[in-house]
C-alpha cells in the first residue's frame, strides 16, 4: 500500500471506538427506569440475554467478514446466500432502518441542545447538530478520529462514575422481589433493550478505511460488543442495587437524572454529568453511524447494476463525500417526517432482517458446523427472531389497535 493510499486510514483502536460510540446511545440512561418499572430487578436478565444474542450476532458478523474480507458488508454477505436480490434487500433494510433511527435520534439531540440554548427551538437545534456532524464526516477520517476519541471519553466517564457511586450504596435487599411481574415481561421488553446495542455492526461498514481490514475488522466488531456489554451490565446492576424498586415505580417514565437526584441529593455534579453524557452519547451515535452508513452506501453504489449510478460513479459525482451528503439528506427527511416513537419498532424489524440475511450464508458452510461457530450463529438468529416477534407485535398494536 502506498503512503498516499494509507493516509487517513484508521487503526484497530479507533475502529473499536467507532463501534462503541455507535452503540452507546442515550437509551442506556432511560431504559433501566422503563424496564424496572415494568418488570422489576429481573430486567437485568433482559440485558444479559440480549447481550449474549448481540454477541452471537457480532461473532457471526466478524466470522463472515473474516471469510469474505470485502467492502459492502450487508450486500456482500447476503448475496452469498441468495445472490444479488438478497444482497439488495439486506443492504436496503439496513439503510432504511438506520435512517429512521438516526432521524429520531436527531430529535433527541435537538431536545438536549434546546435545554442548553433555550432561545432556539428543538427543531432548529436538531438541524444544526445534523449539519455539524455531516460537515465533520465530510472533512475525512483524521478529524473524525479526533471526534470519536473525545466523544467516547465524554460518554463513558459519566457511566463509570455513576456505576462506582451507585456501588457505594449497594443493597441486595433492593433485588427483592426479583420478578414481581413474572418472567414474561423479561422477554416482551427485549426489543427495547436491543436499541442499546444497535450499531455494533458499524465497524463492518468501514472496511475501506480500516488498516489491515482482514485482521482488524473481525476484532473491532467483537471487542466493541464485549466492552459495551460489560459497561452496560455493570451500569444497570449498580442502579438496581443502589435504588429501591419503589423509587423506580414512583418515577416511572421519568429521566434517570430525576431518579438519581432523589437518591444522591448531595451530588449535583452527577446530574450535570449525566445530562452531558446523554448529549454526548446521542451525538457520538449519530457521528459514528453517518460515517459507517455513508461508507456502506458508497460500497453499495459500486456494486449496483444500474447504468445511471455507474455513470455518476465514473464521473466522480457519487463519491465518499457526496454519499455523506446523501445520508445527511436521508436523516433530515426522517427527522422532518417521523416523530412517533413507534417507528423504533420498525427500525428494529428492518435492522434485524439485515443482520439475519447477512449471517445466513454461514449455515451453508460445513466447516463452520465442525468448528461449532454455527451454534453461535443459531443463538444470534434465534435471539433476533424473538426480539423481532415482540417488535412486530408492538408495532401492530401501535398502528392498528386503538
List the keywords.
402 residues; mainly alpha; 18 helices; Amino acid/polyamine transporter I; globular; disordered N terminus; single chain
Characterise this structure.
This protein is mainly alpha-helical. The chain is built from 18 helices and no strands. Helix 12 (256-263) packs antiparallel against helix 13.
List the helices and strands and how they pair.
Elements: H1 3-6, H2 12-23, H3 27-39, H4 43-67, H5 74-116, H6 122-138, H7 141-167, H8 184-188, H9 190-193, H10 213-242, H11 245-250, H12 256-263, H13 268-303, H14 307-314, H15 320-337, H16 343-359, H17 366-370, H18 373-400
Helix pairs in contact: 2-7, 2-10, 2-13, 4-10, 4-16, 4-18, 5-6, 5-13, 5-15, 5-16, 6-13, 6-15, 7-10, 7-13, 12-13, 13-15, 16-18
> How many separate helices?
18
In CATH, the architecture is: Up-down Bundle
Helix and strand content put the structural class at mainly alpha
* Beta-strand residue percentage: under 5%
Task: Specify the biggest β-sheet.
Answer: none
- The unreliable regions are 1-5
What is the gist of this entry?
The protein is mostly helical and 402 residues long.
Amino acid at each position: 500500500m502506498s503512503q498516499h493510499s494509507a493516509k487517513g486510514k484508521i487503526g484497530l483502536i479507533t475502529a473499536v471506538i467507532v463501534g462503541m460510540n455507535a452503540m452507546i446511545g442515550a437509551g442506556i440512561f432511560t431504559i433501566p427506569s422503563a424496564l424496572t418499572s415494568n418488570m422489576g430487578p429481573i430486567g437485568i436478565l433482559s440485558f444479559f440475554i440480549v447481550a449474549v444474542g448481540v454477541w452471537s450476532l457480532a461473532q457471526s458478523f466478524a466470522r463472515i467478514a473474516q471469510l469474505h474480507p470485502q467492502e459492502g458488508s450487508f450486500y456482500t454477505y447476503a448475496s452469498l446466500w441468495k445472490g444479488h436480490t438478497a444482497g439488495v434487500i439486506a443492504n436496503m433494510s439496513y439503510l432504511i432502518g438506520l435512517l429512521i433511527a438516526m432521524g429520531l435520534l436527531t430529535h433527541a439531540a435537538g431536545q438536549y441542545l434546546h435545554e442548553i440554548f433555550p432561545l432556539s427551538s428543538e427543531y432548529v437545534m436538531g438541524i444544526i447538530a445534523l449539519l455539524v456532524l455531516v460537515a465533520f464526516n465530510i472533512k475525512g477520517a483524521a478529524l473524525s478520529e479526533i471526534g470519536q476519541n473525545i466523544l467516547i471519553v465524554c460518554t463513558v466517564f459519566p457511566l463509570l462514575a455513576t456505576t462506582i457511586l451507585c456501588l457505594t450504596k449497594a443493597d441486595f435487599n433492593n433485588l427483592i422481589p426479583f420478578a414481581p411481574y413474572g418472567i414474561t415481561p423479561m422477554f416482551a421488553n427485549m426489543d427495547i433493550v436491543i436499541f442499546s446495542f444497535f450499531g455494533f455492526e458499524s465497524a463492518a461498514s468501514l472496511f475501506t478505511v480500516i488498516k489491515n481490514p482482514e485482521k482488524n475488522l473481525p476484532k473491532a466488531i467483537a471487542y466493541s460488543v464485549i466492552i459495551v456489554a460489560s459497561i452496560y451490565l455493570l451500569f444497570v446492576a449498580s442502579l438496581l442495587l443502589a435504588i429501591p424498586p419503589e423509587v423506580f415505580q414512583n418515577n416511572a417514565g421519568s429521566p434517570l437524572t430525576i431518579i438519581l437526584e432523589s437518591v444522591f441529593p448531595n451530588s449535583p455534579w452527577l446530574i450535570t454529568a449525566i445530562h452531558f453524557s446523554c448529549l454526548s452519547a446521542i451525538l457520538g451515535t449519530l457521528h459514528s453511524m453517518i460515517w459507517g452508513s455513508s461508507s456502506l452506501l458508497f460500497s453499495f453504489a459500486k456494486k449496483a447494476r444500474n447504468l445511471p449510478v455507474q455513470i455518476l460513479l465514473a464521473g466522480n459525482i457519487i463519491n465518499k463525500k457526496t454519499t455523506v451528503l446523501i445520508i445527511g439528506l436521508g436523516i433530515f427527511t426522517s427527522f422532518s417526517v417521523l416523530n412517533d416513537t413507534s417507528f423504533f419498532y420498525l427500525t428494529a424489524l428492518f435492522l434485524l432482517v439485515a443482520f439475519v440475511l447477512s449471517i445466513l450464508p454461514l449455515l451453508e458452510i460445513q466447516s463452520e458446523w465442525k468448528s461449532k461457530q454455527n451454534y453461535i450463529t443459531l443463538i444470534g438468529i434465534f435471539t433476533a427472531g424473538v426480539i423481532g416477534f415482540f417488535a412486530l407485535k408492538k408495532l401492530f398494536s401501535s398502528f392498528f389497535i386503538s
